[in-house]
């Protein structure tokens, strides 16, 4: 089982590494958000918050955004493999579909984690600093759980779809509200009740808040509450994905 998972994990990493354009191109949006929002809204945020640095608030949200976008679109590989016959060859192999799901999920989560680490390095160039080495270690755990949840979500949805373009449309429809309502760009305090309620049921909210709390010490719900929530959600979505993937048809 370990060997099967490792081979599927390694295949995804090799495909990612060979696509340099994918790595470089995916940095454009996070960098634009950090520069435009960080320096554009920074002075206004400082005045409203009594001198706080907006980059310290924004950086965890942009890192989470990078992980989110990379992770959910890992589901495209399932549709791609189905269209080109690789998925059928994998499904008829003497391995369980749960092993296939685990290998693909870990592979996609690892790629999203790498992407998040690259963006995290860019935030350091723009002046962001983690509070301590221990906080950085906890932040890495949150980054992995965010990657795991949204990779699982992408694979879960992809397991029920055959149209690549339809998958992209559905993902764009889902991830933009998930990102903008997660508190990645603005504080959750003093929001209208309806928006605040939606933010509370947004899975990324707990990832962003936990990552921000781990790296900067500022958290709305509490770091360990966020950790428990995102860990439980990751386990739940991966379980659902395994069940649906077991019924997939090539």
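^ structure tokens above, recovered residues below v
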């Amino acid at each position: 089982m370990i060997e099967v998972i490792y081979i599927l994990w390694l295949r995804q990493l090799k495909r990612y590494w060979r696509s340099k354009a994918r790595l470089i191109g995916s940095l454009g949006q996070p960098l634009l958000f950090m520069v435009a929002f960080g320096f554009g809204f920074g002075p206004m945020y400082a005045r409203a918050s009594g001198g706080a640095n907006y980059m310290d608030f924004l950086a965890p949200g942009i890192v989470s955004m990078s992980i989110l976008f990379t992770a959910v679109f890992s589901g495209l590989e399932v549709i791609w493999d189905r269209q080109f016959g690789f998925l059928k060859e994998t499904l008829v192999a003497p391995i369980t579909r749960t092993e296939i799901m685990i290998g693909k999920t870990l592979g996609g989560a690892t790629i999203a984690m790498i992407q998040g680490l690259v963006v995290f390095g860019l935030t350091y160039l723009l002046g962001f600093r983690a509070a301590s080495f221990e906080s950085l270690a906890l932040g890495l755990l949150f980054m992995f759980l965010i990657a795991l949840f949204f990779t699982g979500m992408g694979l879960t949805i992809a397991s029920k779809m055959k149209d690549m373009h339809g998958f992209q449309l559905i993902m764009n429809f889902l991830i933009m509200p998930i990102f903008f309502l997660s508190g990645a760009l603005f504080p959750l305090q003093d929001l209208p009740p309806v928006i605040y309620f939606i933010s509370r049921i947004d899975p990324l909210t707990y990832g962003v808040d936990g990552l921000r709390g781990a790296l900067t010490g500022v958290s709305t719900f509490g770091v360990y509450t966020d950790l428990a929530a995102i860990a439980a959600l990751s386990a739940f979505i991966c379980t659902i994905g395994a069940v649906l993937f077991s019924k997939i048809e090539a």
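The radius of gyration is 18 Å.
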